[in-house]
Amino acid sequence: MEANFSAQILRAALFAARAHAGQVRKGAAAEPYVNHVIEVAAILAEHGAPEEAILAGLLHDTVEDTETTDADLTAVFGPVIAGLVAEATDDKEKPKEIRKALQISQAPKHSEAAKQLKLADKIANLRSIADSPPANWNHARRIEYVGWAGRVAAGLKGVNPGLDALFDTTYRAALARLASEMP
User: Fold this and answer.
1) Is 64 known to be catalytic?
2) Does residue 29 sit in helix, strand or coil?
């Protein structure tokens, strides 16, 4: 790994940690939110994703979940990384059901880097849903999320076979976990 890329990774991790300071995941473990973006970046790095996808993995929720703007990301990380984050970000102005439907319909249209980023994000989210679900999510809502994630992933696959396989394994494990918890 180049020293320059190492510096960029650390700068993006620090930026994400500061942006998400005080935020925690919705799960029972209430882990620091920054752990999620680090997990996404690690999944990408472990599966040979391009450097811009790894950097964007660290930053992917900053615009959606913090006060960070596209302009902030462009100023600090340049237009390529900011554009990739924008491509992978939901428009929070739209209702939740519209955003979810758009993720399914837009998935096949994303760039290869964005497809890998979104697939890694879904992998991390499925792990969380299985291992530390939000306390207010009943069994049916967890099953619905896993099914929806599978529909989104169908449009993201085909770029990175390792990520595709990891998604499939994680998806099956989440379904098995939920089946074992049937009320």
Assistant:
1) yes
2) coil
Q: Is the per-residue pLDDT at 50 higher than 90?
A: yes
165 residue type, one letter: A
> What residue has token string 């494990």?
173
Distance of CA 108 to the CA centre of its chain: 16
Single pTM value for the model: 0.95
pLDDT at 110: 97
Angle at 40 between CA 114 and CA 130, to 5 degrees: 115
Active site residue 164: no
- Active-site residue among 31, 65, 164, 168? 65
CA–CA separation, 132 vs 134, rounded Å?
7
* Among 2, 31, 64, 67, the one annotated catalytic: 64
CA-based nearest residue to 168, from 129, 131, 119, 132? 119
